[in-house]
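We both want to read discrete structure tokens more fluently, so let's practise on a single case. Would you write everything just below, so we can both look at the same thing?
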Amino acid sequence: MANLHITEVFDIAGSMQIPQMPPVAEQVLAICAASAASVAFSARTRFICLTPKADCHVAVGDTPVATTNSKPLTAGQDYYFGVTPGRKVAVIAAA
């Protein structure tokens, strides 16, 4: 089973626009045939980096449910998104 790695970040470092390390929190979410949601982002989280180990689709929200119509991500890439603290990300395997 492949996983989606979630790195929660508070700030962007300097003018190079790279994540400030160490991260606020890190999570690993299994990429399955059914939508699975993360735990809520930390109160300090402003950005997330998603690194899928398999092609998948993601949704972000208060109670997100990912479908194959949600944002597609390609395996092995890093994807950065601005988010609201307390929200979650959901993932489902690509069909």
